[in-house]
Design brief:
The structure is a single chain. By secondary structure, the protein is an alpha+beta fold. It has one domain. 36% of the residues lie in helices and 29% in strands. The chain has five helices and eight strands; from the N terminus they run αβββββααβββαα. The protein has a six-stranded antiparallel beta sheet. A hairpin with a 5-residue loop joins β7 and β8.
């Protein structure tokens, strides 16, 4: 199936389920020489968000696609043996989680007063790297359509039935 047909199919599903699907690729960075402090290096993040009336769920993969000069540096350093994931540039499932405008469980503390995933509302967050590994396996073996199904199931588990 070509890319345009896939996008059209996803848009149709969004309208049917009253849910919004969003995929973001956040850029790699090298902030080791930032005047405000050493914030390190990081590769591109793949983020899949499923947004509904009650909150947002997400799936995050660290792609380990680094800036060219960082990649070259990692390949040419003796640290390469110790940092094999960065030197092999293999993707790493990082998180499956939720962003909720209200607490999900008693005593849950607010994570942010202004959450981008909730349109600037306060955010209560929870997530799991372990579940991310399971969803990553689904992505690799079955593709994005199956990941969206898993995210919808997760949304229902966290927030209840879809409206």
């Amino acid at each position: 199936m070509n890319f345009i047909v896939q996008i059209a199919r996803n848009i149709k599903q969004i309208k049917e389920n009253n849910m919004e699907r969003e995929i973001k690729f956040l850029p790699a960075y090298d902030e080791r020489n930032n005047p405000k402090g050493n914030y390190g290096i990081h590769g591109v993040d793949l983020r899949m968000y499923l947004k509904g009336e009650l909150g947002t769920v997400q799936f995050v993969v660290y792609t380990n696609w680094h800036l060219p000069h960082v990649q070259e540096e990692l390949l040419n350093t003796s640290k390469c043996d110790k940092l094999s994931i960065k030197c092999n540039f293999e993707p790493m499932p990082a998180d499956v989680g939720y962003h909720s405008p209200k607490p999900i469980y008693e005593g849950q503390e607010i994570m942010s007063d202004c959450c981008e995933c909730l349109g600037g509302k306060p955010c209560y967050y929870g997530g799991s790297k372990l579940y991310a590994e399971k969803i990553y396996k689904v992505l690799v073996e079955k593709g994005s359509d199956e990941v969206w199904k898993k995210l919808e199931e997760y949304y229902i588990d966290i927030f209840g039935k879809l409206k």
